[in-house]
UniProtKB/TrEMBL annotation:
Transmembrane feature ranges: none
InterPro entries cross-referenced by the UniProt entry: Glycosyltransf_2, GlycosylTrfase-like_prok, Nucleotide-diphossugar_trans
UniProt xrefs under SUPFAM superfamilies: Nucleotide-diphospho-sugar transferases
Protein name: Glycosyl transferase family A
Domain named Glycosyltransferase 2-like prokaryotic type: residues: 5-247
Alphabetical UniProt keywords: Transferase
One Pfam family here: Glyco_tranf_2_2
Domain of life of the organism encoding this protein: Bacteria
C-alpha cells in the first residue's frame, strides 16, 4: 500500500499539468500513489496525461464540480496513510514529500505539516519568497490572522485527521483552503519544514485576481474561523480583518491597472487602518500606501513600479526543482 496519496485536481490544465506531474515524479520519496482528478476538462489535458508513463498514477474523470469538489473526490479515492494536494499549475521541490513525511514522523503529536512557499510569476521566469514562518503546535491564533500556508498545494495530512474534520466545503468558490486549514488547526497540532518547497504559480486568471469574489469568501471564512476560536482569541478579530483588507489592497494593485486599481486599493487600506490602526506599523502596509499614493499622483509611476518589481524578482533558475 502506498504511504502517501498525492491528489492533483485539474481543470483545463494543458499548459502546466506536465510540469506539475514532472515535479511529482522527481520526488526523492517514491512510495506514493498519484491521483489526478480531471474536473471535466475540455482542452487537451486528458490527452497529455495519457502520454505519461507513470505506473503510480491513475486519472479519474468527473463532470465539472469545482476545485473543492475535485479535492474531495481525490480524498475519497485515496488509500495512503498521508494525503497531500498539489494544484495543476504548481510545483514542488524534489525533497517536499521526504522532508514533510520525516517531520510528521519526528512529531507524532502533529497531524499536519506545511513548508514555505515561493511565488512564481505567470511566465515561469522569476519568483518571490514568502516570509519565513516557524509556527508549530497550536497554530490557530496565527492562522486566524493570516493564511500563511498560502495555497492548497502545501500541507501533508494524516488521513485520520481528515476523517475527524471532513471534506473541503464545496460551497466555497475561493479561500476553501484557508477554511480547511482553520478547521484542522482547531483540532490538530501542526509541524513545519523550514524550507522553501512549494512553488505557487501566480496567474492573472486565478481566483485571487477576482478581487470581489475573493473579498466575499475571505469574509465568510474569517467569520467561520472566529466561530471556531475560543473567547480568548476573539480580540484578534479586527487585526485579522485588517490583514484581509491589506491583502485585498495588494490584489487591487496587482490585477487592476492604473488609477482604478489605485483607488480601490486606497479604499481597502483605509478600511484596514480604521479596523486596526497599528497596521500602519507594518512595512507591507507602508509599501502599499506608497505605491497607491504614487499611482494616484502620476500614471507614469505604474511603469516605474513595474520595473522595480522586475528588478527585485529572482531568476527561476535558482529554484532547486
Amino acid at each position: 500500500m502506498p504511504k502517501i496519496s498525492i491528489i492533483v485536481p485539474v481543470y483545463n490544465g494543458e499548459k502546466t499539468i506536465l510540469a506539475t506531474i514532472e515535479s511529482i515524479q522527481k520526488q526523492t520519496f517514491f512510495h506514493f500513489e498519484l491521483i489526478v482528478i480531471d474536473d471535466g476538462s475540455t482542452d487537451c489535458t486528458l490527452e497529455l496525461l495519457a502520454q505519461i508513463c507513470e505506473p503510480r498514477m491513475k486519472v479519474i474523470s468527473y463532470e465539472n464540480g469545482g476545485l473543492p469538489v475535485a479535492r474531495n473526490r481525490g480524498i475519497a479515492n485515496a488509500i495512503g496513510e498521508f494525503i497531500t494536494f498539489i494544484d495543476a499549475d504548481d510545483l514542488w521541490t524534489s525533497d517536499k514529500l521526504e522532508l514533510q513525511l520525516a517531520a510528521l514522523q519526528q512529531h507524532p503529536e502533529a497531524d499536519v505539516v506545511y513548508s514555505w512557499t515561493l511565488f512564481l510569476n505567470e511566465a515561469g521566469t522569476s519568483f518571490h519568497q514568502s516570509e519565513p514562518i516557524y509556527f508549530q503546535g497550536n497554530i490557530l491564533p496565527q492562522l486566524l490572522l493570516k493564511n500563511f500556508i498560502a495555497s492548497g498545494s502545501n500541507v501533508m495530512i494524516r488521513k485520520q485527521a481528515i476523517a475527524s474534520v471532513g471534506y473541503f466545503d464545496p460551497t466555497l468558490r475561493s479561500c476553501e483552503d484557508w477554511d480547511y486549514w482553520l478547521r484542522l488547526a482547531a483540532k490538530c497540532a501542526f509541524a513545519v519544514v523550514p524550507k522553501y518547497q512549494i512553488i505557487y504559480r501566480q496567474s492573472t486568471t486565478a481566483m485571487s485576481s477576482k478581487v470581489e469574489v475573493m473579498e466575499k469568501h475571505l469574509l465568510i471564512v474569517h467569520e467561520r474561523g472566529f466561530r471556531l476560536a475560543s473567547p480568548e482569541l476573539q480580540f484578534l478579530k479586527n487585526q485579522s480583518l485588517a490583514n484581509i483588507y491589506e491583502f485585498l489592497a495588494h490584489l487591487c494593485l496587482s490585477y487592476i491597472p492604473g488609477n482604478t486599481g489605485a483607488k480601490q486599493a486606497y479604499q481597502k487600506l483605509r478600511q484596514a487602518i480604521i479596523l486596526y490602526p497599528l497596521v500602519l506599523l507594518s512595512k507591507r502596509t507602508q509599501v502599499l500606501l506608497t505605491k497607491t499614493g504614487l499611482l494616484l499622483l502620476s500614471p507614469i509611476s505604474e511603469n516605474i513600479l513595474q520595473k522595480i518589481k522586475i528588478l527585485r524578482a529572482k531568476k527561476v533558475e535558482s529554484i532547486n526543482t
